[in-house]
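Team,

Forwarding the record for the chain on the shared tracking sheet. I've put the sequence and predicted structure together so nobody has to dig through attachments.
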Amino acid sequence: MDRHKVGSDRTELEKEKYHITVEIIEYMPNKVMRKAIMKKPTGSITAVAVDAGEKISERITAFDIYVQIIEGTAEISIDRKKYHLKSGGYIVIPAHSLCGFSANEKFKMIKTVIKSGYEE
């Protein structure tokens, strides 16, 4: 994933306000978009929109990550094993795993990182 192809909004969503999950973030052509829902020292929740044909490069995860697809279909690689998730599906990526994402079609996901219980 090229840095110029990533859009990010690190400001948290407003608390005590009703939000519709799939409307938290919009697709942008040829980009991976991120919107912080909540960011704390012990973890974070992020909405991610990935345009068709885009990838999030493989990297080693430091912590457990819960990924739920909220729209579309995603291909997720965990330690080189491929998983195909569709809207409503989720997977937990174990800490210290090599993981990456591919968008054969555009998709949106909620990514929850849990930091407690691990050393940084």
